[in-house]
Each structure stands twice: as C-alpha cells, then as structure tokens.
Amino acid sequence: MEEKNRDITQQPFTSLFIIKIGGNIIDNPSALEAFLKDFSAIKGAKILIHGGGKIATKIGEKLGIRSNYIDGRRITDDETIDLVTMVYGGLVNKKIVAQLQALGTNAIGLTGADANIIPAQKRPVKTIDYGWVGDVDSSKFNVQSLLSFIGHGVAPVFAPLTHDTHGHILNTNADTIASSLAVALSAHYKVRLIYCFEKKGVLEDVTNDDTVIRKLDKALYTQLKQEQKLFEGILPKIDNAFNAIDAGVHQVLIGDARDLIKNTTDNNEGTLIY
C-alpha cells in the first residue's frame, strides 16, 4: 500500500487517460460523433467507458419490457439484464468501436466478463432488491489483458457491464467502473480519470457557467461544502474522485465533453481534482 501511495509525480510511468462519457452523449448522434473525433485525436494510452443512455428503454418499450426505477436507479430483473446486455454490450458498444475504427483508432469493445477483467458481486438485497446489479472491487480486477491491449496501441471501450463469475452478467454503474479501472491501473500508469458531462466543470455557482473551479483539493472542497456553495448533485462525483485519488489515481478531471482535448492537457477547461 505504501508503494501505491507514494508521490506518483516521481514515478516514470506513462500517462493513461481513462475517459467516461454519459448517456447524454450516447443519445445524441452528432454529439457522440464530435466526441469520438476528439477521443481519436488523443495521443497515447487511453480507455473509454460509456453509459447506456435511453436506448435500452426505447428498445425495451418496443419489446414490451417495462423499465422500473427506484430513486433514479434501474431495477435489473431477468428480462432487463438480457435487454441491457444486448443494447449496452452489443448495439451501443459496437457502434462506438466501429466509429472509432473509421476515425483511425484501433479499438476493442469489452464488458467486464471479457478476459475476466471485471469480476463483481451481485448487490445484496437490503431494503431494495436491485436485481442483476453488480458491485465491484478494484483489487480483484484482472488487468493483464488490458495492459496488453494498451501496450499494442489498442483502445479498450467498456460497456457498463460486469459478471459475477457464476455465469451471470451484471448491470454496473459506468462511473464506478471508470474510477475502479483507474485505481486498478494506477500501479502501472500515471492515470488521469476524466468524467465528461454537460457542465464546464464543478461550478461555484451552478447557475453560472463562468464560475468553474479550475483546481480543487480537499481543503478547498471542505471549505466550499461548509459554505454550501456546491450543488448537491455534484457532491457524489467529487467524493468518488477523492476516493480514487486516495487509492492511487494521479488526477481526476470533471468537465464538458466538448472540452475533451483541452482536458487532456495542463491547460484544462474543467475542474482538476488532486
């Protein structure tokens, strides 16, 4: 553990960008096309994790599969896990991979079941049974195949699916997969984890896009929370970011998908968390 927590800026590691895009991009073909052009333009080692968007819901309606949510979280029953496996791991993932190939980026589409990269545990039933939903532990990831892909210039593209090692696919939060991959790979690379969403970054005033906080450390974060200056909805992302950093990730950046190129540089537009 001491090895992992030493000052990573002193390590001669190659940089790795782990980039997560959400459903708002997946659901917008022109936004996705622009994003993938920018992703393809990034030089060096990179991984993409994508959400599912609303496509599974729309296809489910056509197939007579009703979507059920509790507190905004999808309940993944037997029918739904088949649906999201088909849509996330198939339709969405392979369309992204095909578009990246057309843009000159050699990519491979993956789920957590492929090469046993992301084994997970079915979420235990407490007050709510979420069904086939997976919780991950980054210490159990098998990253050797990923290291081989990246070492050969191939960009892995992950759908938000894992597996329980007993033959079941599990629906798993894409943000969690991204941060857990960042932690698992931080022993091998200097990782910048980038969360792309609809805002320019973490805003001091959520109604004003010009109030982006460019750099955020724990001391400033604690102060802003105490002063109640941050939008509550962004707090889980920031907490997740600091958890990743505490576990060895070099940096986490939260920003607009349209600023992806700049957000892979030191002259970032989003919020750099360190």
Explain this structure.
Belongs to the acetylglutamate kinase family. ArgB subfamily. It is found in: Cytoplasm. By secondary structure, the chain is of the alpha/beta class. The chain has one domain (2-197): Acetylglutamate kinase-like (Carbamate kinase, 3-Layer(aba) Sandwich), CATH 3.40.1160.10. Helix content is 35%, strand content 20%. It contains nine helices and 14 strands. The strands form four sheets. The protein has an eight-stranded mixed sheet with strand order 5-8-2-1-11-13-14-12. A hairpin with a 2-residue loop joins strand 3 (69-70) and strand 4. Helix 4 (55-63) crosses helix 5 (78-102) and helix 7 packs parallel to helix 9 (235-246). The longest helix has 25 residues, at 78-102. It is globular. The protein starts with a helix and ends with a strand. Mean pLDDT is 92; it is low at 1-12.
Question: What is the highest CATH level, the class?
Answer: Alpha Beta
Q: So how many helices?
A: 9
CATH-derived architecture: 3-Layer(aba) Sandwich
Q: What is the strand content?
A: 15-25%
Strand order of the largest sheet: 5-8-2-1-11-13-14-12
Number of domains: 1
